[in-house]
What does this fold into?
Amino acid sequence: MSNMSFEFRFRKTSLEPWCLALWGGWCFFVFWKFNPHPPEYFNLIQNAFSPLAGTNPASFDQWPQWCFQILKISGTTAGVVFGALRLGGKLTRWLGFQTKNSLMGLSVEFALGIAAVDLIWLGFGFAHLWVFPFLRIFFGGVLLFLVLDAFRRPFRFPRSLPAFPEWPFRLSALGGILYWLFSALHGFLPETHNDGLVYHLGTPVYWLLNHGITDFPNQPHASFPYGGELFLLTGYLFQGPEAAKLINSVVLGFCALASAGWAWEAGGRHSGWLAFSLTLTLPLLVWVSISTQIEGFLSLYLVLFFYFLFQFVSRPAARGDQTLVFLSGLWGGMALSVKYTAVLGLGIGFLLLLRDKRVWKDYFKKKFFLIFGAGLLGIYGIWLLKNWAYTANPLYPYFDSLLGGRKMSAQGFQWMIEDQRFVPTGGEWWNVPWNLLMTGSNPFGFVGPVLMSFLPAIFLFRFKTPEWRWLAWAVVLLGITGLGTTQILKFHAPGIILFFILFSAAGGSAPFSWWGKGAALTAFLSALFCFPLLAGMSGFYCSGGGMWSAGETRDQYLGRVIPHSPYPACRFISENLPRDSRLLIAGDSRVLYYPRPFRADSGYETPFLASLFQKAGNLEQVRLKIREAGFTHLVVNVGEGIRLSAKYPHYDLTSGQWRLLDDYFKRGLDVIYRKDPIVIFQVRQALKETADKEGFDPLLYFSRPVVGFLLARQKGNLEEAEIQRKKILELYPFITRFP
It folds into this structure.
């Protein structure tokens, strides 16, 4: 299947061994600089799998329940993935699209299935039919139909698969499979990642509780597209966040199949195996796939987008294939529906495509842009219309000065940009790539040494055909523009995978067997080298050993792993509050596990209560506003609220406003739950005095002086703590004590 479009930049003389030796020396230097003491890190592996001290030992009594949970998670994941493949296969046949590349064909069918499921969710969401019984019956019926249809038209496993590789490639492939299994293992743990709790699953669950897609006040992330999360929501619907996480690991697997298929088509079987291994052992992709972060979706769709554009460059006959044009637009639309950062890939791909003057006539003649736009806007346009309907700005929260509509506060927008690191900071530009790629393990961009090891070697190969030079330029420009946009490396995952495809296609092809074997060995060593670091991150952030050994229950795990966990309070709400309750959540934006409709504060916008007491003149106005909003209960997360207030100081009230707020807590609310760090109040229908003052008003902890006092005391700075204590007494003259 190889087209052999590569050649060594130097002639086959004694120079090649010298270049190989220099590259080997460079790899050793990079590995050594990444960490000069690797044996120490192998002690980190036990942190990922060993139960923490204090958790219960494994109990055989819990194994039946735990095994049932595993079967439920696995069965739900298998059903969703099977359904997506069958739906995608039917759409592929209906569109008349065929590919000789079986691995790419599987990826195309799966990606089409995701798009079909997204459209179903969107249709029901705008019709406000997101009702649990109806959705489960509908998706269950669709799955039953597809299963019965599979008996009539059984799935044919692709015959044209890459042959089994030689030994160095077997080692790297084994590393990739083990990395994927490590990722999948985390699918049997509930979601605890902050982004998943706040918006990746938090926002879709908010919509579920409100029976459809609607405005989510005070949460700007809810205006981002959710093309990846809606597919994960299918697993959540039948089982919960565990199935959503496991499905995310499967998406990583299909992303690896797509990259392997492309490299196999270009450079032969060893190229395919090398690309497969490099994709699966990329630590940052593995890390995002153990939660509900969606960079795996983004990488899959951008790889397909560039692959289809590659067909236009390499095959002039493809320019008249309307199905190919429509699908390339669909991949671009789905990429934008997953993450706005996809615009860099789409823009670069088109700029490089359209610089070839020979294709302009073909494109206009065949209505390329019209058909491509139909594919792109057919799914991405829905998200633009949704934003326009709710905020009057299709790209909210961006470009409000240009497009108008709802405006985000300047301070909140600045905080959001800083959190997403869209403005690069650091040292001189020339050493930014080295500093970023060699930072070691961190949750925002753990690449490992393999990428830096391969960078010089790619310049030793010459790309003979225009299409591969086009892809090489795309990779270079993606890297440059990406670094100029953000230094969170997980957003660069698509560009890194395209580089792996390019390198694998050249280095793994037959004329350069030693280069391919060296690359496979380097990939395996990098995987071996990085796994302890990845396991250490898992042990620190996930610590799932207790659950994996059935020594810890799900409730215990969620109460322990999530900082300032709201989960015990969520269980109380589920068991004690009426189903028509409506919650106002203060001091916490992590909303995934709340079982009743809610409104929660975001770190970027002024909280509801802060805004209310800044404007209200008396308690009766406050009571009426809360009654108009329909809130029946107030949930205050004191611990998380202090943390958020230290970073986003929104509760900037005057002394009189704080007194009014304190009076409302005493006259308008009743405490029904108090367990650190959560306090739950029931909203009274009328204001009245109460003999039980319930101690200190929890929202008073969110003011600047209190937060400053707590931080100073935590750091042992007694002088600063005393300064802040005096400010507290000036701000709160109405309190008799301050703990």
